[in-house]
Amino acid sequence: MRYTLAALASASLVLGHGYVENATINGQSYPFYDPNTDPYTSPTPERISRKIPGNGPVENVTSIDIQCNGDSVDGVIGSAPAALHAPAAAGDNVTLFWSLWPDSHYGALVTYMARCPDTGCQDWLPNSTSVWFKIAEDGLITPESAGGQADIWAVDSLEVAGNAGYTYTIPSCLADGFYLVRHEIIAVFLAGSYPGAQLYPGCHQLNITGGAGSTVVDSDELVAFPGAYAGTDPGITWDSSSTTYPIPGPSVFSCAAGSGSGDAASSESSAVATQTLVAASSADSQTSTATTPATAVSPTQAQTTISASSIASSQISSTSSTAVVPSATSLTSDATPVAAETSAAASTGKKCSKRRGLQRSNL
Ligand SMILES: *[C@@H]1O[C@H](CO)[C@@H](O)[C@H](O)[C@H]1NC(C)=O
Ligand SMILES: *[C@@H]1O[C@H](CO)[C@@H](O)[C@H](O)[C@H]1NC(C)=O
Ligand SMILES: *[C@@H]1O[C@H](CO)[C@@H](O)[C@H](O)[C@H]1NC(C)=O
Ligand SMILES: *[C@@H]1O[C@H](CO)[C@@H](O)[C@H](O)[C@H]1NC(C)=O
Ligand SMILES: *[C@@H]1O[C@H](CO)[C@@H](O)[C@H](O)[C@H]1NC(C)=O
User: Fold this and answer.
1) The Auxiliary Activity family 9 catalytic domain covers which part of the protein (predicted)?
2) Which ligand is nearest to the CA of 317?
3) Which residue minimizes the CA distance to atom 7 of ligand 2?
């Protein structure tokens, strides 16, 4: 039987995974690159978001596709810059609206920024250089073991039709300039072995103006994509019976620590955190476990801090001087395994297709 484009498009809506459809930035709504229509629209619509090949995941964390999406396996290598930038101010909230997220795909929401050249992001590909700093992360908010009927994950709120979207705050201390924002869902329902975790990255471009900030993030706090994640990271290869989820990558950038305006204690702890961050983002997670300094918060504290969404969804306050390092320590043996829940992998019966794009969407 022959499928019409419309049939394929609606099939992808039903069976697909997802992507960010639009954003509200400084009161203005911006449609994002639509992989179902933009490739077939002439002239090509100009967007603030970079091209994505479809609604499917990236699983290879060492591929350039992990940066702003892509499908190297099928010849779509990484992403290309977008034409536009959304104007915004440091401290603004940006709300991203994902397509309705499938409830089997539980996982984390993680957001990074990178400063583009002063000429803009529209020609810029960072490749594998270290340019990214993490500005927000939300993972396993409440484990089932805390008394609920199921784990509560950051993506859960995106699984309800007409949801309020996901909001991140542009760090208030950032210097004006052009920035590339890398936002992803890391779905971990199949993360028991690598490759298995499904990453859904996408990038959008901001023109940050009119702010009072002057912070340019130190180069030693920056990570690369690919580079920031390794298949052996405990948040990339993750046992679904675990009661904690260590979000991969560096600790969240804090204006209080990063601007040097904090007190001596906070500067010190941020320096420690930065070193830990470098260790944690190295390819060998064993190394990061071994070198995590005693000052790093305990797994329980780390989880609690992340759960409170205090870093992710609100502006980083100058009182939060302790950088949270969601490192390999979160998988220590004192985590009490709960009775193994029916995993999404088991309930869906098969691994989600890696296939991308309209013609190849999961059929
Ligand atoms: C992952 O990507 C890297 C870099 O492109 C490549 O060398 C490697 O073969 C890929 N791995 C798989 C399993 O495709
Ligand atoms: C951003 O959202 C936070 C949390 O809702 C709120 O406290 C803050 O005032 C908002 N910032 C702006 C600039 O609207
Ligand atoms: C943005 O995307 C969401 C999620 O699909 C949708 O509900 C909403 O109507 C869209 N908003 C605009 C302005 O297109
Ligand atoms: C990234 O790669 C492209 C294409 O090879 C190159 O033109 C560009 O200069 C590189 N960017 C950086 C920041 O190295
Ligand atoms: C960035 O914002 C500034 C200040 O509003 C504006 O003058 C400039 O044209 C903008 N640049 C781009 C490329 O959007």
Assistant:
1) 17-241
2) 2
3) 314
* Residue in 92, 93, 96 to alter for ligand 2 test, most ligand atoms within 8 A of Cβ: 93
Residue 26 in contact with ligand 5 by CB distance below 6 A: no
**For residue 309, what are its two tokens?**
């969404």
Ligand 5 contact via 87 beta carbon (within 6 Å): yes
Helices (H), the chain: 5-15, 65-68, 255-258, 264-280, 285-291, 299-307, 344-348
Residue among 216, 226, 279, 218 at smallest CA distance from 250: 279
Region of 75 on the Ramachandran plot (φ > 0 left; ψ -120 to 50 alpha; else beta): left
CA angle at 60 for the pair 55 and 65, rounded to the nearest 5°: 60
Tell me the ligand closest to 64's alpha carbon: 1
CA of 157 to the centre of ligand 3 (A): 15
Q: Is 95's C-beta closer than 6 angstroms to any atom of ligand 3?
A: no
* pLDDT tens, the chain, 363 aa long: 333 333 334 433 444 699 999 999 999 999 999 999 999 999 999 999 999 999 999 999 999 999 999 999 999 999 999 999 999 999 999 999 999 999 999 999 999 999 999 999 999 999 999 999 999 999 999 999 888 889 999 999 999 999 999 999 999 999 999 999 999 999 999 999 999 999 999 999 999 999 889 999 999 999 999 999 999 999 999 999 999 999 999 999 999 875 433 333 333 333 333 333 333 333 333 333 333 333 333 333 333 333 333 333 333 333 333 333 333 333 223 332 322 333 333 333 334 443 343 332 332
Q: Say how many Å lie between the CA of residue 329 and the centre of ligand 3.
A: 39
pTM, entire model:
0.76
Domain-wise residue ranges, the chain: 18-348
Ligand 1 neighbours by CB, cut-off 6 Å = 60, 62-63
Give the ligand whose atoms come closest to the C-alpha of residue 24. Answer: 3
Bridge partner list, 87: 207
Query: Could you give the 3-state DSSP secondary structure of residue 158?
Result: helix
Which architecture, in CATH terms, is 18-348? Distorted Sandwich (2.70)
Q: Whose CA is nearest to atom 6 of ligand 1?
A: 63
